[in-house]
Amino acid sequence: xxxxxxxxxxxxxxxxxxxxxxxxxxxxxxxxxxxxxxxxxxxxxxxxxxxxxxxxxxxxxxxxxxxxxxxxxxxxxxxxxxxxxxxxxxxxxxxxxxxxx
Length: 101
Fold this sequence. Notes:
With about 100 residues, the chain is mainly beta.
């Protein structure tokens, strides 16, 4: 969507399986990638409960290529559906990624 390609790969923390970590890769050739992903993202469980990210570990907000891990605290109770929404990246109002587990 838009001028920015966004790839997201979900994973759970190896020490605490209730914590979610998402590898995010952003690529573009026409705009600066200066979005704050901690502010742009939200995680939603199968009950509709929302979780804010706690940390971005990765490339700083600049350039045309960024990669890193977006970390969330525990999602409780464990859920079968997880949804990640990223708002405003690359002028796209909202991107939604869903996974069933």
